[in-house]
Design brief:
Shape: globular
Helix content: under 10%
CATH superfamily of the largest domain: TonB-dependent receptor, beta-barrel domain
CATH class of the largest domain: Mainly Beta
Number of strands: 41
Number of helices: 5
Number of domains: 2
Length: 727
């Protein structure tokens, strides 16, 4: 269906790059969805956000891009999506660490096995397509196969002599500059693409100061094709560089202060700053070995360095989260006055510690997939086999630096830095999978297996201790689709879900039990259909966790035992995803309409006590934190000649912040949130277009999280205007 819509695509577990028609060979061979897939016959569930929709709303925030995809959960943090928190089908949203993140089919988390938390994420404005896989569709990617996979497709190389320019500005000091140029010479196709986005921020720092960010990326591609032989080949070299400086903090507000001004920021966070640099290089090779056999190989290396200096704790033993949760209790009122700068540091316990979190990551490897399409008797058969050899590493150097506050200004107290963490985790992994899809008549079936061998090593450079951890897992999956008639079909699927331990897994959980990997059986059953221009889908899912894995991080509210893992035991997560869309035509006006709804329930199956800050003392039947029961997204537009207007609505239910009792946030929950985004585009001619958008039209702000320290708001209303020129 044409128009600005989020098209529901249920992708077979075997869909991947395939042999292309001659006129299509100059596209990027990194899309996992194929444009020729028969969507009605696919055996698993997934969704796509296409370039048309991305350009209509001009989102820089991946949270907003994904807000209309059913089965996706987000937890906002900074309002701009700089450090995304994304979950799929019950997988925790914490730093998107429980899902597989890819760009052009390559893992992009800083260290996908050793430290998968998404402290790096590409600028969405340069992405041409976002593909989301859930449940059984995701077993080909790994290492995380419980919730699913998100693949970002970068801008393909354009025709020679073409390019784009995009300039925009708006409220909160927002600015964007984008440029792309493509050129061909001597048989090579090349493209250079650059983007810069920044803002002064919407937070109001006590005493004044910048609360915004600056982020830029540069991407270069060079492709070469061999067409004068019987075996078409294409080579693609891709290099990129990105950096970010953001004045971001983990410090939020008390609920009382939030009610007065949700955008206030306390004086004690005035020195908080995140700095990072990211580089990547990849070389891809595609060859058609025969009309029915193709081979696609990619070698890659990514390096990421980041330094986050931010307020972390008091000199006293009282956690900041506890002070903000109960600001009038005992000595908490005095400590709150220290955070706000309303009083000076007077006592030894009035020291404020900045944590200087320096981390260096690399991720490298080579992967290849062989695709064979053939026939066996009356069956159409497609076989895909893949192999990946991967290595990644993280080095951490965390230091505490002490300050006092005088007249609302942070000043060094003269003491030396204290090294709190110095370690190195590294992992080598070998993964292989085979998937077979068989089609005959109205029936399409697929069955596959993924095998992972993971070998991890952790060195504590402060104590001189070293631990090793290895694991081998077999992860089967299967799906089936039956086409009843031209309008409706039934799908069903099952797969083994898995999230590996970090290399430090031998640290005991609660002092009694070694942390186990996260494992589950995931099931889905649904129908999809098309009738009279309507497209619809209803899919139920059930994730049966044998063990839920919790990871202690600063962002989750932990202050000690960072990266320690916890067993959550058996957990059930179940729900339903519904989507309905159609484009109406009223005279010369086209009206695209789309609604997506997700219902989710979760239950711990056992009672236990945990030191993990998001669990606490859990009773069987308690729900998972940050997993809303209801999410609703509606989008409607009006397209008339060269004018296109769209209105997007998103509702997200309240979410509990701790599963059990005994923690500072026990009993607390986020607030339900309703947000409208409005966008409009006018095409002056084939080359020039103007656009404007208004995010959060009603300026509604609610508490979207209280982790790690205090209440945080979503982004307020923001108006942006821009101009695009294509040549």
């Amino acid at each position: 269906m044409k128009g600005l819509q989020l098209s529901l695509i249920a992708c077979a577990m075997s869909c991947a790059p395939y042999a292309l028609a001659e006129e299509e060979k100059n596209v990027e061979l990194v899309e996992i969805f194929g444009s020729k897939n028969d969507l009605l016959k696919a055996t698993g569930s997934a969704s796509i956000v296409d370039q048309e929709l991305l350009e209509q709303f001009e989102y820089d925030d991946i949270h907003r891009v994904l807000q209309a995809v059913p089965g996706v959960y987000i937890r906002e943090e900074d309002g701009y999506g700089l450090r995304p928190n994304i979950g799929l089908r019950g997988a925790t949203t914490e730093r998107s660490s429980k899902i597989a993140l890819l760009e052009d089919d390559i893992l992009i988390s800083p260290a996908p096995y050793s430290a998968p938390a998404a402290y790096f994420f590409p600028v969405v404005s340069r992405i041409s397509k976002v593909e989301v896989f859930k449940g059984p569709s995701a077993i080909r990617f790994g290492p995380n196969t419980v919730g699913g996979t998100i693949n970002l497709v970068s801008t393909p190389i354009g025709e020679s002599g073409t390019g784009d320019i995009d300039l925009a500005g708006g409220e909160q000091g927002y600015r964007k500059a984008y440029g792309r140029v493509s050129q061909s010479a001597y048989g090579f196709d090349a493209q250079l693409e650059g983007i810069y986005i920044g803002a002064d921020g919407f937070k109001e720092l006590d005493g004044g100061g910048d609360t915004g960010f600056d982020k830029s990326e540069l991407v270069g591609k060079v492709a070469y094709e061999i067409t004068d032989t019987d075996h078409y080949q294409r080579f693609l070299l891709k290099v990129s560089y990105s950096d970010e400086v953001s004045n971001e903090t983990y410090l939020g507000l008390t609920d009382e202060d939030f009610a007065i001004n949700p955008n206030r920021r306390y004086a004690a966070s005035q020195l908080d700053e995140f700095d990072s640099e990211h580089t990547s290089i990849s070389l891809s090779h595609y060859i058609e070995l025969s009309p029915s056999m193709t081979l696609f190989t990619q070698a890659y290396r990514r390096d990421f360095d980041r330094d986050w200096d931010r307020l972390n704790r008091f000199g006293s033993t009282r956690p900041i989260a506890e002070v903000l949760a109960s600001p009038t209790t005992g000595f908490n009122e005095s400590l709150l006055a220290l955070l706000t700068g309303e009083r000076d540091s007077l006592f030894d316990d009035d020291v404020l510690f900045q944590t200087l979190n320096d981390r260096e990551f690399f991720s490298q490897g080579i992967q290849t997939k062989l695709i064979v399409e053939t026939q066996y008797r009356d069956f159409d058969v497609k076989i895909e086999s893949g192999l990946r050899v991967h290595q990644d590493q993280v080095e951490r150097l965390h230091r505490d630096r002490s300050f006092v506050i005088r007249s609302g200004i942070l000043e060094r107290d003269g003491n030396s830095d204290i090294v709190t963490t110095e370690n190195r985790d590294e992992t080598t992994a070998v993964a292989a999978y085979t998937d077979v899809q068989i089609e005959k008549g109205k029936l399409t079936a697929s069955v596959g297996t993924r095998v992972e061998y993971i070998d991890g090593n952790a060195k504590n450079l402060l104590t001189g201790t070293e631990t090793d951890n290895s694991d081998t897992v077999v992860l089967p999956g299967a799906g089936v689709f039956y086409q009843f008639n031209d309008n409706i079909g039934l799908l069903a699927g099952v797969n083994r879900g898995f999230v590996p331990n970090s290399p430090t897994t031998d640290i005991l959980d609660a002092g009694t039990q070694e942390a186990d990997p996260e494992e589950s059986w995931n099931y889905e059953l649904g129908v999809r259909g098309q009738y009279a221009g309507w497209s619809s889908s209803l899919i139920g899912f059930f994730n049966d966790y044998e063990n839920l894995l919790g990871v202690c991080t600063f962002s989750s509210g932990c202050l000690e035992d960072i990266d320690r893992e916890f067993n959550g035991g058996e957990v059930d997560v179940y729900g339903a995803e519904f989507e309905l869309s159609k484009t109406f035509e009223v005279g010369a006006v086209k009206i695209p309409f789309n609604v997506a709804y997700t219902f989710t329930e979760s239950e711990f199956q056992t009672s236990f006590d945990s030191d993990f800050s998001q669990w606490g003392s859990v009773t069987a039947g308690d729900e998972l934190p940050y997993l809303p029961n209801h999410i609703l997204a509606i989008r409607v537009g009006a397209h008339w000649n060269d004018l296109r207007v769209e209105l997007a609505y998103k509702y997200i239910d309240e979410m509990i912040e701790t599963a059990g009792l005994g923690e500072a946030l026990s009993g607390a929950s986020t607030e339900s949130l309703s947000v409208f985004d409005l966008s409009g585009t006018y095409s002056v001619n084939n080359q020039l277009s103007l656009y404007a958008k208004l995010d959060n039209v009603t300026d509604e702000q609610e508490i979207v999280s209280r982790r790690p320290f205090g209440a945080r708001p979503n982004k307020p209303r923001q108006a942006i205007v821009g101009v695009k020129y294509a040549f």
